[in-house]
Amino acid sequence: MSHIRGCPFCGSNDVTCVGGEGIPGLRVFCSGCGGMGPVRSSREIAVHDWNFRPELQDLLGEAYAQYERAVQEQDATRSTDDTATDELINKVKQLIR
């Protein structure tokens, strides 16, 4: 049985694979925010597709790269105590990994 990763939308770990009872196929569902993965023919495929998010990782990676370029361009004017920005950078780095 494959481990289901937390929700990419809200971060909740309250996720499960659901289906049957009038629902065609299976999908991963987040009880935290109602987020759902794509409907698939088996639990293994539904969990795999929920866990593997290349589009999200690509978008986050590109957003981070753009942010890094902007920071480098404006580094001279950036405050040395920019805690909020540093926290955002760390969150993005964690999401990309």
* Fraction of residues in H or I helices: 40-55%
Q: Strands of the biggest beta sheet: in what spatial order?
A: 1-2
Report the principal-axis shape: elongated
What do the pLDDT scores average to? 80
Number of domains: 2
**Element-by-element helix/strand order:** EEHHH
Please give the radius of gyration in angstroms. Answer: 18 Å
| Class inferred from helices and paired strands | alpha+beta
Q: Tell me the fraction of residues in β-strands, as a range.
A: 5-15%
What topology does this entry show?
Layout: E1 15-20, E2 23-30, H1 43-51, H2 54-73, H3 83-96
Antiparallel strand pairs: 1-2
Structure characterization notes:
- This protein folds into 2 domains: about 15-50, no CATH class; about 55-95, no CATH class.
- It is built from 3 helices and 2 strands; from the N terminus they run ββααα.
- It is elongated, with a radius of gyration of 18 Å.
- It has helices at about 45-50, 55-75, 85-95; strands at about 15-20, 25-30.
- The mean pLDDT is about 80.
- The chain has a two-stranded antiparallel sheet.
- By secondary structure, the chain is of the alpha+beta class.
- The longest helix has 20 residues, at about 55-75.
- α2 (about 55-75) packs antiparallel against α3.
- The protein is about 45% helix and about 15% strand.
- β1 (about 15-20) and β2 form a beta hairpin.
